[in-house]
Amino acid sequence: MNYMDFHCHLDMKAFDLNREEIAAEFFNSGFSRLVTAADPYEPGSFETTREILSYHKNIYCTAGAHPHGADRYTPAIEKAILRFLPESGAVAVGEAGLDFHYNLSTPENQLQVFKRQIAIARELQLPLVIHSREAEALVLQTLEGEKFQFPVVFHCYTGNMADAKEIVKRGYYLSFSGIVTFRQKKTDYLRDIVREVPLDRLFTETDSPYLAPEPFRGKPNTPLLVRYVAEKVAEIKGIPVEELNRCIDENFGRLCPNCPPG
Ligand SMILES: [Zn+2]
Fold first, then answer.
1. Measured between alpha carbons, how far is 54 from 172 in angstroms, rounded to an integer?
2. Domain range spanning residue 204?
3. Which has the closest alpha carbon to 153: 177, 129, 178, 126?
4. CATH number at residue 57
5. Is residue 262 part of a domain?
6. Which of 35, 90, 107, 119 is the 20 to 30 A CA-CA neighbour of 253?
């Protein structure tokens, strides 16, 4: 089985009634690892995330300032992130980056906060999990300008082929969500990208509670549905899903050398 959900939001209110049951079902089904992203802007997120981590040894977390909240970034938030990351044993800083699709914060503030997250990751020697919407070129340019040396994963990748190739060329990773299962012409480009990305450069994720894959599109998403994402990626690659999951596990091992085997 060995499915891995590289990115979900199990701390969110959508899971208040069943997060422990979902985590139990995830591991009882033989799935291997789950990474939940803590949100420093959301009161209680760090606490809930600590509780989630206690459910199972193969649950991991990340924490970082999402670009949506950049206008609300404060020194207190930064301090809280800096405290939470080592305390929780977080495996990466994020999600962090730029979102020029929604532009919920000004581009200037987004860039400034992104640079702070890069500095935090560098200080703590952690990988970065990137959120990028219509901003891949500037994200890549910023990582280069800041000379960031640790692993980088673009979560829920929706950028173009050229940027995907640049991400791979730099030794970074792409994580694919349920969007790869959507039966629409306009998502064909993403399946073309999946075909191109080498097996040692990719992850699967749900981004739940958002983005339920087919055949559950539009319904609530949970980490359990990552199998539909992985099955689609394996189908596109023309390999058995077990082989894909084995590669993903190795990729995670490179990201987190101290994490125990899945
Ligand atoms: Zn995101």
1. 30
2. 4-255
3. 129
4. 3.20.20.140
5. no
6. 119
Percent of the chain with pLDDT over 90: 97
Is 260 part of any domain? no
Domain count of the fold of the chain: 1
CA–CA dist 157, 62 (Å, integer): 17
Find tokens 């692993």 and name the residue.
151
| pLDDT category of residue 245 using cuts at 50, 70 and 90 | very high
Residue 55 Cα to ligand 1 midpoint, Å, equals 24
User: Counting Cβ atoms within 10 Å, is residue 45 exposed (0-12), middle (13-18) or buried (19+)?
Assistant: buried
Tell whether the model's pLDDT for residue 1 goes beyond 80: no
Is residue 209 domain-resident? yes
Residues with CB under 5 A from ligand 1 (ion): 95, 131
Tell me, in angstroms, the distance from the centre of ligand 1 to residue 129's CA: 9
How many angstroms is it from 155 CA to the middle of ligand 1? Answer: 6
Q: What is the pLDDT of residue 173?
A: 98
Domain membership of residue 70 (yes or no) is: yes
Helix (H, G, I), strand (E, B) or coil at 76: helix
The amino acid occupying position 183 is R
Written as one letter, the residue type at 47 is E
